[in-house]
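Dear Dr. H.,

I hope your travels went smoothly. While you were away I took the liberty of generating a structure for the chain from your last submission, since the lab meeting agenda had it listed for discussion. I wanted you to have the full record in hand beforehand rather than looking at slides cold. The sequence, exactly as received, is reproduced here:
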Amino acid sequence: MSNQISIEKELKKSYLEYSLSVIIGRAIPDVRDGLKPVHRRILFAQHELGNGWNRAPKKSARVVGDVIGKYHPHGDSAVYDAIVRMAQPFSMRDLLVDGQGNFGSIDGDAAAAMRYTEVRMSRLAGEFLSDIDKETVEFKANYDNTLLEPSVLPTKVPNLLLNGSSGIAVGMATNIPPHNLGELVDALLVLLDDRDCSIEELMRHVKGPDFPTGGICYAGQGLRDAYTTGRGTVKIRGKVEVEERKKGFQSIVIREIPYALNKASLVEKIAALVNDRKIDGVTDLRDESDRKGIRVVIDLKRGTIPDIVINALYKYTPLESSFGINMLAVVGNRPQTLTLKSALSYFIDHRREVIIRRTRYDLRKAEARAHILEGLRIALDNIDEVVRIIRASGTPQDARDGLMDRFGLSEIQAQAILDMRLQRLTNLEHEKLVDEYTELLKQITWLNSILDNRDVLQGVIRDELTELKSMFATQRRTDIEAELDGIDIEDLIPDEDVVITLSRRGYIKRTTLESYRAQKRGGKGIAGLHTGDGDFVQDFLTTTNHQFLLLFTNKGRMFQLKVYQVPEGGRTARGMHIANLLPLEESEFVTTVLSVRAFDEDKYFLFATKRGMVKRSSADLYGKARRTGIIAVGMREDDELIMVREVNEHCHVVLTTQDGIAIRFHCNDVRPMGRGATGVKGIALRSNDEVVACVTLAQDTTNEIMTVSQGGYGKRTRLELYRVQSRGGKGIINFKVTPKTGPVLGAIPVQLEDELILLTSDNKIIRMNISEVRSVGRATQGVRLVALNEGGSVVGFDRVQERDVILIQDEQE
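The corresponding predicted structure, in token form, is as follows:
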């Protein structure tokens, strides 16, 4: 029973040991040399192999074999992958491995097999192992207790911040960005002089991360948080420029990309967005990158504003990325989150410890050599007697003892005299010995001063850092800018009048209003929209680019876009299918398009259905629409939403039917309801009749109602001819429907200053002044508005306001 243990306690203990092993022995770098164990072992194995920067490179397989055979008993692929990354100029700010061969690319191409590539330490990596043979760091047994390996490298390089690090351990992770060596050295020198300096003072020198791939880093509050608390997020953007081409065309050229971004995947993402029309105005995309650098070219259509495309690239692609900084490192065998100051302070403490240990080693060696030289000097000053003692001795032991007794020498000194070569007896050699001894005394004095005087020690650290900067520091690659101030697309798009066109089959486009010219009533019209066989336009809406576009479907759902987000097309263009913009369900289609400037609380949306149901809901309920759409109105199975209008509490509502019936009632007769409500009865329909339009009018309006039939007839009727009734009644006659006129297509409120746009089923467009249409009574059929071809009909119409801003096109167009 004594062997029983608690499973809970054992699991906690075992998992804690495992997590610590992963944290310290694999995933998190040491704060002193900024290396994980695998990288440290790679550099040490190369050092032991003599694979330095000034030697011929060796096969990568040779280095990998030494690392896994002596120090790192893991898979060879893991070690080789680490070597490859240390040799990639797009992964490391300053390379630690000088590689020959294919070491992969920024496009995600894999490196060649280790048997094909060769490596050696870079010159900078040599500074990691400087003085390692002078007992500067502790060594520990390797995995099988047959060799010793360093627990940390005596590096002169602040590598933790220089090259950064990333890793995921158990329950924690680190993500430290690379920095500029020159800036780090400047900050270290400041900290060396004043250990109480603030992080803000250090940030005057360390401007921010310096990524090997360049780009732009926005050093706002996120960077300040990272340097003061150890955690923060910064935005990184690739660098783009606009190039002028022939004949007024322009191209956007991507020169630099965010750190750790796969360039090939970026190009693929841009291509997909262009194909999906989320990025408009692009005619060609190609990757012209070579050994000289990155060059991704995006050719633009004439007239396209480059800033709009650039902003779309930043918004929809990883060309703008977030880098989450988490400065976690191993400090004294424990993970610790670091600030900028603490990370630099730990490195200075490490350098101080290394220099002290190196000084003690050099002092011990110097004193031992000086001790020997003192004995040699005594021997040279008394050479005749020394020779006599040696010749008179029977054995080397007797000679050594005789010299020790006669001159008071130590055993080491006496042995050195016995080992001395005869050439040292010459005058030249004697002078060299004296000079060496003199220099040793100066060195011993210097080394003692380092150990005894803190200021001298600080001076040594300063000199080494200054030398490091002069040898290895390079210009900053990443530009540092203040808080990100993105481009507002709306500021770049003129708020001009446009026409939104939606065809029966669901093709939508945005066209400038200037694309149409005014014509006389009864004309044949100019070529309109080419929608294809069996398709025709069902909705035309005149609006402006900056308004919200609300798209309501037959199933009572609403989707929201900005008008400028609808792809632009010429007058004869087909447009983009609505399914590319909206996630519509099967058998669902857009029936009503509405544009609004804002979602005011005192405004309402009035919904009308085919079966005569109406509903009023506050506009602010529809201001925040998900991309997947929202429920705008509850629908019965046999009903469909036909129209939505913006109203206020003082509006009057006129519902018109295809059989020429209309009803007018106060908007207040329809109480406000929630988004999901079905509504109340607006008109009692006759058999086989259905609502085709919903007209909303202010109570004191001077508007007239324009009614248009499918046969091309229309008329204006004064509003006072429509008496106000109670909601739910049978209504009154609005239009005299005959076989010649065809069913009523719809009705809109108009004024004499407006213009009317008519669209026919054969895709002709007629534009005329409202004043050209005669004002008549309710029970009339009106006048012919358009001459239709046989079998043709009017399928859509809308009014145009502010006619004076429209350019009249040449009739020959």
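Two observations you may find useful: The first strand starts at residue 58 and ends at 59. The chain has four domains: 16-182, 239-318, 353-472, 493-805.

With kind regards,
E. W.
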